[in-house]
Write a structure and sequence with these properties.
The protein has about 200 residues and is mostly helical. It has a single domain, classed as MetI-like fold, CATH 1.10.3720.10. Helix content is about 75%, strand content about 0%. The protein has eleven helices and no strands. Helix 2 crosses helix 4. The protein starts with a helix and ends in a 6-residue tail after the last helix. The relative contact order is 0.13.
Length: about 200
């Protein structure tokens, strides 16, 4: 989630501040994310096998970064678009570079959107099943895939008690994060809705 934000924030700034980015790049990214992820299963598996990234935390983290990047991009582009361009221009008149403007002016103003992006990205990564099932076997298995192991019919059927406990514990982190950060999420989602 953190890597997705680190990569998406500069890209979102560039897209939000250019007309071509808003008209061309952002729709392509959104439409690419709308494609079912299962289409990429075989090429990703072969690439991960060739790179030695199967069943590694780094490999799973990289794929979750790719899954989270479009969502992060959409949220951050909308947040950065609400920041007046005049703030950028004033900072540049004072001698700030584009990187300094992005980090010292735009980033603090878009902090609620960054927090919201982190929360949604964490929940998306936590709930990822497809790539966890496909790219891991024992060492880097995510909770969602691990919970499914208790439903295997080998040797005694379904272990309902253990499976229920694992699912309840697995549901706690995103639920607690959502409850704790509810105000931050709701404030970010309605920011910029009313102008004037």
């Amino acid at each position: 989630t953190g890597l997705a934000i680190v990569l998406a924030f500069p890209a979102a700034y560039a897209i939000a501040r250019s007309e071509a980015g808003k008209r061309l790049v952002l729709p392509i990214v959104i439409n690419l994310r709308a494609v079912p992820l299962i289409i990429f299963a075989i090429p990703l598996y072969m690439m991960y096998q060739w790179l030695g990234l199967l069943d590694t935390r780094i490999g799973l983290g990289l794929i979750l970064t790719i899954v989270n990047a479009p969502l992060a991009l959409v949220i951050l582009v909308n947040a950065i678009s609400d920041v007046p361009v005049e703030l950028d221009e004033a900072a540049k008149v004072d001698g700030a570079s584009s990187l300094q403007v992005m980090m010292m002016i735009v980033r603090p103003v878009t902090r609620p959107a960054l927090v919201t992006t982190f929360i949604f990205g964490f929940i998306t990564a936590w709930n990822e099943f497809l790539f966890g099932l496909m790219l891991t076997t024992s060492r880097a298995v995510p909770m969602t895939v691990g919970a499914s192991f208790f439903f295997a019919a080998s040797g005694g059927g379904v272990k309902w008690g253990t499976a229920s406990a694992v699912m309840m514990l697995g549901a706690l982190p995103p639920a607690l994060l959502g409850l704790v950060m509810y105000r931050q999420i709701s404030g970010s989602m309605t920011a910029g809705a009313v102008k004037g």
